[in-house]
C-alpha cells in the first residue's frame, strides 16, 4: 500500500514537530543548493525556527542577494516617485511663469511699467487696447438697443391697454372724446372754481346754492311731487367722479 496524503496542519506533538522541521529544513536547503547548481541561479534561503534560530543558504552570499533584491524591488518605485516629483516641479514652474506674464500684461494694460517695452511691443499693446475699446462700445450699443426695444414693447402694451379701456367705455355708452374734452376743460379751470359741498346728514337741511351743470339736464321738479325744493337742489349739486 502507498503512503497516504498528509494533512497540512500544525503538529501538536512537540517532539514530532521538531523532527519534522529538521527533516524538511534539510531537504529544503538541499533543494535550494541543487537549484543553484543545476540552473546557475542565484538562490538565497532564510529560515527561522520556532525558537528563533536562523538557518540560511546563499549561492553567492545571503547579504549580496538581499542587496540585489532591494535594488530590484525598491529602486523602480523611487525612480517613479522622482519622475513624478520632477513632473510636478516642471508644471509648477510653468504655471508660475504664466502667472508672472499675466501680471506683467495687466500692468501694461493699466499703463504701468511701460519703460522696458520696445516700439513694436507698444504698438501691439495699442492694438489690444483699441480692440478692447471697440468691444466695450459694441456691447454698450447692444445694451442700449435692448433697453429701447424693451421701452417700445412697454409702449405698445400701454397702447393696447388704452384701446381696451376706450372700447370698454364705448360699450358702456360713454363717448371717450367728450370725456377727454371735459377732462381738459375741468383741468384748465382748476378745482378752485368749484365749491366743495360737505355731506349733509339730512337732505332736508340742504340750502339752495349755485351749481355747475355739465353733460346732463337739470332735474325739473314735477308739480305733483311732494319732495321739497331744497332737497332737489342738493341732488342736482352732485357730480359723478368720472366727470371731474
TrEMBL record:
Pfam families: K-box (PF01486), SRF-TF (PF00319)
Chief subcellular location: nucleus
Subcellular location: Nucleus
Source organism superkingdom: Eukaryota
Transmembrane segments: none
Keyword Electron transport: no
GO biological process, one term: plant organ development
Keywords: DNA-binding, Nucleus, Transcription, Transcription regulation
GO cellular component: nucleus
All copies of domain MADS-box, residue ranges: 1-61
Upper taxonomic lineage: Eukaryota, Viridiplantae, Streptophyta, Embryophyta, Tracheophyta
InterPro entries, per database record: MADS-box/MEF2_TF (IPR050142), MEF2-like_N (IPR033896), TF_Kbox (IPR002487), TF_MADSbox (IPR002100), TF_MADSbox_sf (IPR036879)
Entry's Gene Ontology molecular function annotations: DNA-binding transcription factor activity; protein dimerization activity; RNA polymerase II transcription regulatory region sequence-specific DNA binding
Keyword Transcription regulation set for record: yes
K-box domain location: 85-175
Protein name, UniProt field: Uncharacterized protein
Amino acid at each position: 500500500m502507498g503512503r497516504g496524503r498528509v494533512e497540512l496542519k500544525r503538529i501538536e506533538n512537540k517532539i514530532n514537530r521538531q523532527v519534522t522541521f529538521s527533516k524538511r529544513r534539510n531537504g529544503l536547503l538541499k533543494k535550494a543548493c541543487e537549484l543553484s547548481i543545476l540552473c546557475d541561479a542565484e538562490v538565497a534561503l532564510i529560515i527561522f525556527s520556532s525558537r528563533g534560530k536562523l538557518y540560511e543558504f546563499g549561492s553567492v552570499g545571503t547579504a549580496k542577494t538581499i542587496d540585489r533584491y532591494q535594488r530590484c524591488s525598491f529602486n523602480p518605485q523611487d525612480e517613479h516617485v522622482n519622475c513624478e516629483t520632477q513632473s510636478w516641479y516642471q508644471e509648477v514652474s510653468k504655471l508660475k511663469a504664466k502667472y508672472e506674464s499675466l501680471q506683467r500684461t495687466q500692468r501694461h494694460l493699466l499703463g504701468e511699467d511701460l519703460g522696458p517695452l520696445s516700439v513694436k511691443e507698444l504698438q501691439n499693446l495699442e492694438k489690444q487696447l483699441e480692440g478692447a475699446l471697440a468691444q466695450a462700445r459694441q456691447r454698450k450699443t447692444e445694451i442700449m438697443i435692448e433697453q429701447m426695444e424693451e421701452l417700445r414693447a412697454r409702449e405698445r402694451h400701454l397702447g393696447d391697454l388704452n384701446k381696451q379701456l376706450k372700447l370698454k367705455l364705448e360699450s358702456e355708452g360713454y363717448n371717450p372724446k367728450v370725456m377727454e374734452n371735459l377732462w381738459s376743460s375741468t383741468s384748465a379751470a382748476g378745482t378752485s372754481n368749484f365749491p366743495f359741498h360737505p355731506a349733509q346728514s339730512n337732505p332736508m337741511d340742504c340750502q339752495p346754492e349755485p351749481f355747475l351743470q355739465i353733460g346732463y339736464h337739470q332735474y325739473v321738479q314735477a308739480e305733483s311731487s311732494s319732495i321739497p325744493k331744497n332737497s332737489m337742489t342738493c341732488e342736482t349739486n352732485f357730480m359723478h367722479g368720472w366727470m371731474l
